[in-house]
Amino acid sequence: RTIESLGDLRSRTVIVRCDLNVPLSDGVITDDGRIRASLTTIRELRDAGAKIVIISHLGRPKGEPEARYSLKPVAVRMSELLGAPVEFVDQTVGASASAAVGALVDGDVVLLENLRFNAGETSKDDAERRAFAEQLAELGDAFVSDGFGVVHRRQASVYDLAQLLPSAAGRLVAAELEVLQRLTVDPARPYTVVLGGSKVSDKLGVISHLIERVDTLLIGGGMLFTFLAAQGHAVAASLLEQDQLDTVRGYLADAEKRGVRIVLPTDVVVAETFSADAAHEIVPADAIESSSFGDAGIGLDIGPDSATAFADVIASSATVFWNGPMGVFEMEAFAAGTRAVAKALTETEGFTVVGGGDSAAAVRALGFSDDQFGHISTGGGASLEFLEGKQLPGLEVLA
Ligand code: 3PG
Known about the structure:
Elements: E1 13-17, E2 24-25, E3 28-29, H1 33-47, E4 51-55, H2 72-82, E5 87-89, H3 95-102, E6 109-112, H4 119-122, H5 126-137, E7 142-145, H6 156-160, E8 167-169, H7 171-184, E9 191-195, H8 204-211, E10 216-219, H9 224-230, H10 245-258, E11 261-263, E12 267-271, E13 280-284, E14 298-302, H11 304-315, E15 319-323, H12 336-347, E16 351-354, H13 357-365, E17 375-376, H14 381-387, H15 393-396
Parallel strand pairs: 1-4, 1-7, 4-6, 5-6, 7-8, 9-10, 9-15, 10-11, 15-16, 16-17
Antiparallel strand pairs: 2-3, 12-13, 12-14
Bound molecules: 3-phosphoglyceric acid.
């Protein structure tokens, strides 16, 4: 259901669930992409004369207030970007939240404090979650679900609240779905997926699902070492998930049977320690222990030959989905692989999607801009679960 289904919104109080979970460093927002992405819906609701109550989480506080997870800096940034006041209320539900909402006039915007300061938001207990959703529902007349990054969470503000008020998907959720459907319903081929990030275990579902659908999988990031180890190579002190070796061997066998290419790096950047100024060398991926650091060496990026090979595959792909950095891009010495993949995505003729809050922040931190890609998804876990073909609670409830 889209916003139209809610009818005339003039003078009605609309609760909008956004995903304003932005990266912060010492209270300063380092990437405001998720705030920008939320503006289309907010502007439209203001134009329609609604009174707007924005709710969101930030980080993973444990059900009680923690100053470092306050949404206050987000309200300030949102107000700048919107060009209109965004009042911040230091409560999610309660007397001051109700009073602030009650005082809104048409077109006003208020942002309530972090949903996850309330235990009910993420509770596994249905009744506790429902009780918190009921408190939220009292604040509005209608609900717009626009936090794409959280639609895979069965949480009070995502799932339960949508059942308590007239509800619809916001413009961001609708736009994200349209793009991701291009990847799941008959994608243009060759279809390549580039996966990085540290843990294989986070990507298990998506890898097994993708093997049935893609032409090529490029593997980088910390998880590549578990793939190398599964092929029988020593990986020195690099990240290794021993308990995933059999699963990964299964993937490699399955991919071979199906004629899907899984491309692993042929060279890697190995460092003496995990630090920005560590001594480092490029070594063949099947001889990591041959570096000067012996079995203490830690692989922190894909090497230049691999980056070129990955870029070549991307250049000849018609569809590319990318999730997860190729190395520790936050440290300049180990950013080249991620930068090369990002650059290749900007240069290919194919349709490109960058999936995930972290991957999006990575490409922006490396100096690329959103318009150089086909689409930058605001959802990390959500976009992966969508590609896995899972039912997402926050979408299911709007159907
Ligand atoms: C994200 O960053 O992927 C979303 O904001 C969801 O956050 P969560 O993984 O803490 O639920």
